[in-house]
Amino acid sequence: MPLKKRSEVRAEFARRGMSYSAWAAANGYSPNLVIAIVNDDDDKPVRKCARGASHNIAVQLKLKDGEVLQLAAPRMTVFA
User: Fold this and answer.
1) Residues 15, 70: Cα–Cα separation, whole Å
2) pLDDT tens for the chain, residues 1 to 80
3) What letters, b where the CB count within 10 A reaches 16 and e where it falls short, cover 7-24?
4) With 0-12 CB in 10 A as exposed, 13-18 as middle and 19+ as buried, what is 61?
5) pTM of this prediction?
6) Number of domains into which the chain is organized
7) By residue range, what is the domain housing residue 22?
């Protein structure tokens, strides 16, 4: 599977007419995290996407090779 550059991912979103927020909602991710990853630098990325949701997003967008892992559901805090 050939990996993509972030510019290719941005072009694909534009070609499909899909927003990052819509993709994030459809895949269960934070829109802000998806935007941060897609708009990061290819050569010196701030987000390494080594684990967790960042890793899964990068794999699903074909920015990196790997497996999408099931993450534990966030814990809900109940206030009395």
Assistant:
1) 29
2) 799 999 999 999 999 999 999 999 999 999 999 999 999 999 999 999 999 999 999 999 999 999 999 876 655 556 65
3) eebeeebeeeeeebeebb
4) buried
5) 0.85
6) 1
7) 6-60
66: in domain: no
Cα 4 from Cα 1, distance rounded (Å): 9
**Long-range pairs for 62-68: beta carbons < 8 A, 24 or more residues apart:** 62/1, 62/2, 62/3, 62/4, 62/9, 63/3, 63/4, 63/6, 63/9, 63/37, 64/3, 65/1, 65/3
Instruction: For residue 69, tell me if it sits in a domain.
Output: no
Give the CB-side neighbour count of residue 55, counting CA atoms within 13 A. 10
Residue 11 in any domain: the answer is yes
Is 1 a member of any domain? no
Q: Which two tokens stand for residue 71?
A: 């993450």
